[in-house]
Each structure stands twice: as structure tokens, then as C-alpha cells.
Design a protein that fits this description.
single chain; 358 residues; mainly alpha; Preprotein translocase SecY subunit; 2 domains; three-stranded antiparallel sheet; 14 helices
């Protein structure tokens, strides 16, 4: 097993916890609104919380590997070394992600997750092609067609926006006239991006991780409950996929509310003399934006949820045991590629590199 077997799960879990805590503690919400300095403080707190979470998940990983017979029981010193090594691997990934964000292009954490998915691709393709026979060739081709359809759908949904027209009244300041123009406020169908599905993946795996640790408990009742949880949260089971779907939908609404504040947008529009045709400035504008955002977020959240459970549905219809990429992986790969391309394009435009599009 790899020293980075935990991946970025502890960091993602810590991020989820702090996102939730900002809704409970006004002090954290105030820090979050302090711009770059506030963001750095929240990141520092997130890194600090990542360490104990990584320690706990390292213990769970040890229990999982032991139950599967990969490793045997360890003495205290080797066990501590195992836990420390796994934790250090996670913190190294966090550091690499932050360095990529600061000195590279795009979101470093997302790019590392992208690299992990793409790195597994050759192995999974090899496993899939090794199972190709004359009998299941049609099923595999059907799955490939479904995969292409999903990729195209993800691109369309990621780029889809609802444009709301905003007019600005004419204003005279001194000898100059301002305003008298119209612009558009773009509301993306998938406003939250890949963050909700990454959060949901981390949480949906937690019950199984804890249950694997408790299965070795000497308490027969506790061990039996842990075994039942492991069965319930089988990735191909109904309970797992239903829970996964609901988590994705819930996190999509939650994260959209975090990153897009209709009241603040309405205040900014009113501040600069803007208005939406047929809607009064101020609170009515905020209510209108919230209404539109809720409707399009419902569609986007449902789409993300369906993409999340795509592997199970595809396996039922195609009977292909080794899927090349799951729905979550496809979404992350496509979204990261699109966002990274936009970041590169923005950098090139900023540097006035006109030869790029020629």
C-alpha cells in the first residue's frame, strides 16, 4: 500500500467541517469575509484540523488492511510509525496542493485529485480490455457510448448559464454621464462545481471505514452492527447509492449558498444604480435572484447526483464489472480540465499573448 493511501480525504473532511461551522459560529463567518487574510486563516485552521482527522483515518485504514489480511497485528512502535507515515503522506499532499495553487495554475487540490484519477486509468483500461469477449463486446460498446454521452452532458451542464439582464440608469457627475447601459448577470447551472461531489465522496465512505475498524471488536453486538453497516454501505447497494445521491444534492445547495449571496449581489446592483426589468431594487431583487438560483440549482444538483450513481446504473444495464471511470471521476476530470483551461486562458489574456488562438 502507498504512504499516501489516505489521499486528501482528511483535508476534505476538515474543509467540510469548517464550512458547516461558519454557519454556526458568527466569528468564523466574519473571518471568512475578511478577504485574502481571512481565507488564509481558515486554511490554517483547516490544516490544523486535518492532522487529528488523518490520525483517526490512519487507524481506520490499519484496521481495514488487517481485516483483509494484507498486514498482521503490529506492535505499538510499528503501529505508531504506520499511523505517523500515513498522516505525513496526507500532509505532504496538502502542501503540494497549496504550492500548486500559489505558484501554478488552477486549484492545486483539484489537480492532485485529477492526477490520481488519470494515474489509475491505464490499469483500469487494461482490466476492462482483458475481459472483452465476443459475448460481452456489445455491452462494453454500450458502456463506452454511455460514457461519451456522460462526458458531453457534463461539459454542457458545466458551461450552461442563466443570464439575467441588468440595466443601469443614467447618472450625471460633473460634466460626465454614467450608466445608461445593460449587462448580464450569469448564474451557472452548476454553480458549485465539483466541490459537492468531492465532499459527498468523503462522507459516504466514512461509515464503512468506521465499521471496518469496529468489526474486530470483542463486543459481539458492536461487531454485528459494524458488519451490517459494511453490508448496507456496499458501493453497489441501494442504501449506499441513495445516501450518496442525497449527500450530493444537499452539498450542492449548501455550497451554492456559501459562494453566492443573492442579498449581497442585490445590494451591489442597487449601489451602482442597476435594476432588473420588472423587479424593484433591494429585497425584491434578492428574492428574485434566490428564486432563480434555487430552480437552476435543483436541476444542477439532480444532475450531479445522477452522475454520482452512474457507475451502479451503468453496471446494471451493461453488466460490465470493471468500469473504466466512475461518474464521479469523469465529472472531476472534465471539470478540472475545463477550469484549468479557463485559468490558462485568463493568464494568457492577462499577458496579452495573442499568438495562442492563432
Amino acid at each position: 500500500f502507498s504512504v499516501m493511501a489516505l489521499g486528501l480525504n482528511p483535508y476534505i473532511n476538515a474543509s467540510i467541517i469548517f464550512q458547516l461551522l461558519t454557519l454556526v459560529f458568527p466569528k468564523l463567518e466574519q473571518i471568512q469575509k475578511e478577504g485574502e487574510s481571512g481565507r488564509q486563516r481558515i486554511n490554517q485552521y483547516t490544516r490544523m484540523l486535518t492532522v487529528p482527522l488523518a490520525l483517526l483515518q490512519s487507524v481506520g485504514m490499519f484496521a481495514l488492511l488487517r481485516n483483509q489480511g494484507i498486514i498482521s497485528n503490529l506492535a505499538p512502535i510499528p503501529l505508531i510509525s504506520f499511523i505517523a507515515t500515513m498522516t505525513a503522506g496526507t500532509m505532504l499532499l496538502v502542501w503540494l496542493g497549496e504550492m500548486i495553487t500559489q505558484k501554478g495554475i488552477g486549484n492545486g487540490i483539484s489537480l492532485l485529485i485529477f492526477a490520481g484519477i488519470v494515474g489509475r486509468l491505464p490499469v483500469v483500461i487494461g482490466q476492462t480490455t482483458s475481459t472483452v469477449t465476443a459475448e460481452n463486446l456489445f455491452n462494453i460498446l454500450t458502456f463506452v457510448a454511455l460514457g461519451l454521452f456522460v462526458i458531453v452532458s457534463i461539459v454542457i451542464i458545466n458551461e450552461a448559464t442563466r443570464r439575467i439582464t441588468v440595466y443601469y440608469a443614467k447618472r450625471v457627475r460633473g460634466n460626465k454621464m454614467y450608466g445608461g447601459q445593460s449587462t448580464h448577470l450569469p448564474l451557472r447551472l452548476n454553480q458549485a462545481g465539483v466541490i459537492p461531489i468531492i465532499f459527498a465522496v468523503s462522507l459516504v465512505l466514512m461509515p464503512s471505514l468506521v465499521a471496518n475498524f469496529l468489526q474486530a471488536s470483542p463486543n459481539a453486538t458492536l461487531s454485528s452492527i459494524a458488519t451490517s453497516i459494511t453490508v448496507w454501505f456496499n458501493p453497489t447497494g441501494f442504501i449506499y447509492n441513495s445516501f450518496y445521491f442525497l449527500l450530493v444534492v444537499g452539498f450542492t445547495f449548501f455550497y451554492t449558498a456559501v459562494i453566492f449571496n443573492p442579498k449581497k449581489i442585490a445590494e451591489e446592483i442597487q449601489k451602482y444604480g442597476g435594476f432588473i426589468p420588472g423587479i424593484r431594487p433591494g429585497t425584491p431583487t434578492a428574492n428574485y435572484l434566490n428564486y432563480i438560483l434555487t430552480r437552476i440549482t435543483l436541476a444542477g444538483a439532480t444532475f450531479l447526483g445522477l452522475i454520482a450513481i452512474f457507475p451502479t446504473v451503468a453496471r446494471i444495464f451493461t453488466n460490465v464489472p470493471n468500469l473504466i471511470l466512475g461518474g464521479t471521476s469523469v465529472l472531476i476530470v472534465v471539470s478540472v480540465v475545463l477550469e484549468t483551461f479557463k485559468a490558462i486562458e485568463a493568464q494568457l489574456v492577462m499577458r496579452n499573448y495573442e499568438g495562442y488562438n492563432k
